[in-house]
Design goal:
- The chain has 99 residues and is an alpha+beta fold.
- Helix content is 30%, strand content 14%.
- It has a 4-stranded antiparallel beta sheet, covered by helices on one side.
- The radius of gyration is 12 Å and the shape is globular.
């Protein structure tokens, strides 16, 4: 699950893992990601649109067209932004998607 991977990276996920349907909201500032504006801008560089909710909160919406590769890409970008990954290094745990 995306929210599990985000939590393991140290991202403060606000939405409940069991109660959300297609949107994950996280607190960018508490997660050491600077600001919501910076996170949105950083993801735009990779061609990914996230939704700024306010100065702290950002939303990610996924749907039936979201595949495992896209989820892995989101996680890898978060790892890069949090400096938990360097280029050429894979941070993903194989079991994140089987939980």
């Amino acid at each position: 699950m995306l929210s599990t991977a985000m939590t393991e990276l140290g991202i403060k996920v606000i939405t409940s893992k069991t109660d959300n349907f297609d949107t994950i909201v996280f607190d960018a500032k508490v997660s050491n990601l600077s600001s919501a504006d910076k996170v949105v801008a950083d993801f735009h560089r990779y061609g990914i649109n996230l939704r700024k909710l306010d100065d702290h909160f950002v939303g990610i919406t996924i749907n039936e067209t979201t595949n495992i590769t896209r989820l892995a890409t989101l996680i890898e970008i978060f790892a890069l932004l949090l400096e938990k990954k360097t280029l050429g290094e894979t941070y993903l745990a194989d079991d994140w998607f089987t939980r």
